[in-house]
Amino acid sequence: MKTLFTLILCIFFTSVFAAKPKHQYVRIKTDMGECIVKLYNETPLHRDNFLKLAKAHVYDGTLFHRVIKDFMIQGGDPDSRKPDPKLKAGKDSVNYTVPAEFRDSLFHKKGVLAAARDNNPEKASSGSQFYLVQGKTFTDEQLDDVEIKRLKFKIPKSQREVYKSIGGTPHLDRNYTVYGEVVKGLEMVDKIASVVTAQDKPVTDVVMTVTILKKRESKKLEKELNTQTKL
């Protein structure tokens, strides 16, 4: 009887842990579409901070307040939701920073989520502001130029191929923390990046809401993504 009970417990805990998603995901929704972002486990400080803010609805109603085509779309400032046309979004209104978490394997390919920051010497990230990379494609000659003038290090061959085929913003690598990537709905980034702007601010507000995917939805998504990878 004891052996049977132990077996049942083992099956139960195995099924519970097997059901746990490998990553956590958030949905960023706007009037111009929505995307789902996978948060990297390799950058736990940024991952947990983003989840904390999303759970507290800090991002809901905020704007993508800075948009530059072929570069990135930036948002996440709580003050940007205020209807004051004279208000300039972009300051760290949550009043704290997150220590940099640079990882050589995480780079600024198209679709990544990264943390905005000011010019602090530690390169610590804004407590709330983030950007999604649109970027552009590069040639080998252009990447060589970026290495010499901006990076002072060699871009790995595998990353070069991504910058040449998919695109991104390589000059930001190891300067701004990358902590996630769009796994579904990348077209939203392209649409927002194409809006009319005045001094990099969209003429028509692009408002967002951010929600955390539930465990069941995350597992379903990971299964779908794994199937696509095998095809």
From TrEMBL:
Q: PROSITE patterns under this entry? A: CSA_PPIASE_1, CSA_PPIASE_2
Q: Which residues form a coiled coil?
A: none
The signal peptide here is 1-18
Q: Which residues form the PPIase cyclophilin-type domain?
A: 30-209
Give a yes or no for keyword tRNA processing in this entry.
Answer: no
Class of enzymatic activity (EC top level)? isomerase
- Write the record's keywords in alphabetical order, separated by commas: Isomerase, Rotamase, Signal
Q: Which domain of life is it from?
A: Bacteria
Specify one Pfam family. Pro_isomerase
Kindly list the GO molecular function terms attached to this UniProt entry.
peptidyl-prolyl cis-trans isomerase activity
What does the record list as GO biological process? Answer: protein folding
Q: What is its EC number?
A: 5.2.1.8
PANTHER family, per database record = PEPTIDYL-PROLYL CIS-TRANS ISOMERASE-RELATED (PTHR45625), PEPTIDYLPROLYL ISOMERASE DOMAIN AND WD REPEAT-CONTAINING PROTEIN 1 (PTHR45625:SF4)
UniProt lists the family membership as follows: Belongs to the cyclophilin-type PPIase family.
Would you tell me the protein name for this molecule? peptidylprolyl isomerase
What species was this sequence derived from? Pedobacter metabolipauper
Q: What is the lineage of its organism?
A: Bacteria, Pseudomonadati, Bacteroidota, Sphingobacteriia, Sphingobacteriales
